[in-house]
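Parallel beta-helix repeat protein: structure, please.
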Amino acid sequence: MRKAVFLWASLALAAPLAQACNQNVAPGQSIQAAIDALPKDNSPQTLCLQAGTYNIDGLLHIDRSNITLSGAGDASHILMRDDVEQPVLVIGDYQHPEPQAAIRNVVIENLKLTGNHSAKEFMPALPYLSNSVVIVRRGEQIVFRNLTLDRCRSACLLTERQSSNVRIEQNRITGAMWDGVSFNSTRFVVMRGNSVSHNVAAAITAENLEDSYISNNQLVDNGSHGAYLSNSYRNVFEDNTINNNKQAGIYLTCAIRTRSPLICWDNSMSADNTFKDNTLNDNTFGYAVGVDSAANCAKPGFKINVWKDNHSNGPNQQYPALFGRCTTADPES
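Here you go.
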């Protein structure tokens, strides 16, 4: 597919080769102190976490570029204390609502990160910061691979604030009180080979995701949708297994302007996305759409979403007589 080829080319620099450890950290030592002690010149640095449990009572943050944080798989376990109202790891500027600069070339690999089900979804001292397990804020060329993320108070993995070129591979993501993976204002993601399951809301939720390639993932047994796409464009979902989610396998909708009454922002309906060769079984709907008069598929210039060669045992739902055709598939499968 032409889109997929472009995306792989654009992300060629997003997966740097592993380097020898510049510094080792053992259980009982401070991960944050080790990060802070790295040279300030943004030279490439690899910080290696030995096997064991790393109990933390406050967020870890990476605010320098060109760093790899690598462990020994699930044996290197970063564990947030139960009563802490903070995320586990923030990549980028967390001290300002809008990050002051981009952070680039960060790799997080071969680790287990566990949050907690604390009382609040957002950090009380910094209410723009959710208590997700991992947050990327204006990150560029960021890699997550072979991670286990669990017990997430908000999302397990959140990208936001104009993040781009993010690669998410071979991770196990479960136990979020909201969504497993959340993309906000993000472009050029490659997400492949991940298991995202048993989250209270969706496996994937996107509020303005663009030009991304989502393939060969297991999006199963989640409390709402397999993938919820709001105000999202030119993304490709291919060869995913999207089964046994409580609502739709794929939900296409707009950006919400007000919730009471429910009104969309003008012309914000997700468009020009491609769904090909996915398996969608035992969801309430294969796909469903959420539209209104402000954001619908009959608007001039709307680019229809392509639904091709997917395998689904559930009905589809759209309203072509009222709001135009949102996908190339028929409303009922």
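Notes: The CA atoms of residues 11 and 105 lie 11 Å apart.
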